[in-house]
Specification:
Layout lengths: L3 E6 L3 H10 L5 E7 L3 H9 L20 E3 L1 H6 L5 E4 L6 H10 L3 E4 L7 H14 L3 E3 L7 H11 L6 E11 L10 H4 L3 H17 L3 E9 L10 E8 L4 E10 L7 E7 L2 E5 L3 E4 L6 E3 L11 H14 L9 H20 L3 E2 L8
Parallel strand pairs: 1-2, 1-4, 2-3, 4-5, 5-6, 7-10
Antiparallel strand pairs: 7-11, 8-9, 8-15, 9-10, 11-12, 12-13, 13-14
Helix pairs in contact: 1-9, 4-5, 5-10, 6-8, 8-10
The chain binds NADP nicotinamide-adenine-dinucleotide phosphate (NAP).
The site of NADP nicotinamide-adenine-dinucleotide phosphate has 23 residues, from helix 1.
Length: about 350
């Protein structure tokens, strides 16, 4: 296989960003798009839209996708080697499962699923079918996040003492399927919190053991949460505070940020810099290739990593296991908030 032939499921906001990313990668040919409406799929295939909710300006690319299909057709098509699942959260499981059962490699947007049990079933199916399963935690591909990971990994700030992270949309009031629990599976925690939970596990290089959470709907009359405060412990015992939310009136910095406090220093992402006193002298430094918080490059790198994983050149930087661990944390957090107690992340019984 010289180029991976990819089909996109969904024609919404993130599908557009991915169409841009996929057509920017030389190892990929974007061959198909699927929708509930053939007309919408055809419109999307013309690639003459400018901007999306996530990139409001013109992102400067027009393209043509050969085939417009419905969801059943794309899952069975011989013209497609791999799919990008860009559908409402609660549909991820069914469409990923069906795609992999048909031998297709699968990229699934975050949150991987709405239940941990489903996520681990997808991991198992990918292994059984010998296909690549990658999850869309795209912050792993951002230069500033990679900088923080390197600072921690190389011991530049010493042993880690504590972490603070958040992923918050200010003055953002979602509607439609996002606030319908049958399609979203949850609110701001599943939508936004998963970014902070995953980015911290990526930067620290370890997962979580327990969580205490206070999850509420405090701003709007949603049937899902808009305000989440999580107190987590990593497997090695590092305390991590994660906040997520929609419709908030204020967030301290950008819409997402991480602060990592080490014994010998500190590293932050957005704003991105590190402080160290490792050699006995105070020093401050920044990434050599800083990126804006809004950079779309991370989506392009993510697509490239997906294709190269399928071609056997690389491993997925965000595997099915990584995505499933995040869903395990989310499930435990919702349980903790309901019961008012710490919940063992492994006690969900599905995170091996
Ligand atoms: N990585 C990120 O930062 C990021 C950012 C945004 C979203 N996401 C994730 O990407 C996924 C899609 O989000 P989005 O913002 O692109 O949503 P969206 O704009 O509402 O698009 C969702 C698409 O799903 C399709 N769909 C199929 N069945 C549907 C149903 N029953 N109800 C509603 N839509 C249905 C629709 O396409 P048709 O009508 O054409 O079938 C729709 O365009 C979500 O899981 C979200 O969490 C990730």
């Amino acid at each position: 296989m010289e180029k991976v032939r990819v089909g996109i499921l969904g024609t919404g906001g993130i599908a557009k960003i991915h169409a841009w990313a996929l057509t920017s990668v030389s190892h990929i040919k974007l061959v198909a798009v699927a929708s509930r409406s053939l007309e919408r799929a055809r419109d999307f295939a013309k690639g003459r839209w400018s901007g999306s909710l996530y990139a409001p300006g013109d992102i400067g690319l027009s393209y043509e996708i050969e085939r417009a299909m419905n969801y059943d057709e794309i899952l069975e098509s011989d013209e497609v080697d791999a799919v990008y699942v860009c559908l409402p959260n609660a549909l991820h499981y069914e469409y990923c499962m069906r795609a992999m059962e048909n031998g297709k490699h699968c990229f699934v947007e975050k949150p991987m699923t709405v239940k941990a049990e489903e996520a681990w079933k997808l991991v198992k199916k990918a292994k059984e079918m010998g296909v690549v399963l990658q999850v869309g935690h795209m912050w792993r591909f951002h230069n500033d996040v990679k900088f923080a990971r390197r600072v921690v990994k190389e011991g530049i700030i010493g042993d880690i003492v504590r972490v603070k992270a958040y992923s918050i949309h200010v003055f953002f009031y979602p509607k439609g399927w996002f606030v319908d629990p049958r399609l979203s599976g949850g609110g701001a925690l599943l939508d936004m919190g998963v970014h902070a939970i995953d980015t911290v596990q990526f930067v620290l290089g370890e997962g979580y053991s327990s969580v205490y959470a206070d999850i509420s709907t405090s701003y709007i009359n949603y049937p899902v949460d808009d305000t989440d405060v999580l107190f987590l412990k990593t497997i090695s015992g590092i305390p991590v505070l994660v906040e997520s939310g929609w419709a908030q009136m204020f967030s301290s910095k950008k819409e997402a940020s991480i602060e990592i406090y080490g014994e010998k220093g500190f590293v932050s992402v957005f704003p991105t810099f590190a402080i160290t006193s490792l050699a006995g002298e105070y020093g401050e430094f920044r990434p050599s290739k800083p990126e804006s918080h809004e950079s779309l490059e991370m989506f392009r790198r993510q697509a490239e990593n997906f294709a190269k994983s399928i071609l056997g050149i690389e491993e997925p930087l965000c595997s099915g296991e990584d995505g499933a661990k995040v869903i395990g944390v989310v499930e435990a957090a919702y349980e903790s908030s309901k019961k008012g107690v710490f919940v063992d992340v492994n006690s969900t019984g599905v995170n091996p």
